[in-house]
Design goal:
Keywords: Membrane, Transmembrane, Transmembrane helix. It contains 9 helices and 5 strands. It has 266 residues and is mainly alpha-helical. Strand 3 and strand 4 form a beta hairpin.
Length: 266
């Protein structure tokens, strides 16, 4: 409940401040925030593509986003306001509401790293966190290569060190091949599982097997940098840890990525 009160406070504060600024100033603040994020993302993508460095990309994002905020604040310095009309204040309050939602989302994401349990119990907070999948759709649309944690396959956890890799555009794995039956899978979208964890969902059109992409030949290559056949040769039954099917399987057929095929006499 404490988290929800903080979220409500952030939203009310943003509404109050922007209502006092008036609709034009509030709209400018909203557009400034959006512009800084968009330009920051573009700068990040260009920097990453040129350097292949997540750190340089993040630095470029921060510099460009803050630069836009500073530039616009200098160009449009606040002037003393006269008496604001009710309509003007209402317009400012509406813009403030959206700014408050954005600020609350950022607050909740940061808080999750320090107190995931309190965020998980926040009803309003979880409603706001449901915005997260839409950010993934946007990242797919502009093909934004932000970093994501590189997860090893289950058997490799013992020797694993924290590593990051380029984000996978999961929407491009639509119609990949299912490892159980060889049928085509359909990308059903992104879904928030818990906290800030967002996972893609794929369902095989033929056998109905679900996964985050790991139960497809192409997806396994993307996620783990190896063929699912190599893992199966270690006598491992495969299932998805995110979207469990309740049944581990052995991949059937030839991998369309590397051409490997499991020999059941191995």
């Amino acid at each position: 409940m404490e988290v929800d009160f903080l979220v409500i406070f952030i939203i009310i504060l943003a509404v109050f401040l922007e209502a006092n600024e008036g609709s034009l100033s509030a709209l400018r603040d909203l557009l400034t925030a959006l512009s800084s994020i968009i330009i920051g993302m573009i700068t990040y993508k260009i920097t990453f593509l040129l350097s292949r460095s997540f750190s340089l990309g993040l630095f470029a994002f921060l510099v460009s986003a803050l630069g836009v905020l500073l530039l616009i604040s200098l160009l449009f310095r606040r002037r003393e306001k006269g008496r604001l009309s009710i309509i003007n204040r209402i317009g400012g309050a509406i813009s403030g509401f959206f700014l408050g939602i954005g600020a609350s989302l950022a607050f909740l994401i940061i808080l999750t790293f320090f107190s995931p349990l309190s965020v998980g119990e926040a009803k309003l907070g979880n409603k706001i966190l449901d915005i997260l999948p839409k950010i993934y759709y946007l990242a797919d649309l502009i093909d934004l290569p932000f970093p994501m944690l590189k997860n090893p396959y289950a058997a490799e956890w013992e020797n694993w060190n924290v590593q990051f890799r380029e984000r996978i555009n999961f929407s491009r794995l639509d119609k990949s091949r299912c490892i159980q039956c060889g049928g085509r899978v359909r990308f059903k979208g992104y879904f928030r599982k818990s906290g800030i964890l967002v996972s893609p969902l794929f369902i095989c059109e033929k056998c109905g097997r679900k996964s985050d992409g790991c139960q497809t030949f192409e997806g396994f290559h993307k996620l783990y940098g190896k063929c699912v056949i190599d893992v199966a040769r270690k006598r491992v039954l495969l299932d998805c840890g995110v979207w469990e099917n309740g049944k581990g399987v052995v991949p059937k057929g030839r991998c369309p990525v590397c051409g490997k095929e499991l020999n059941f006499h191995e």
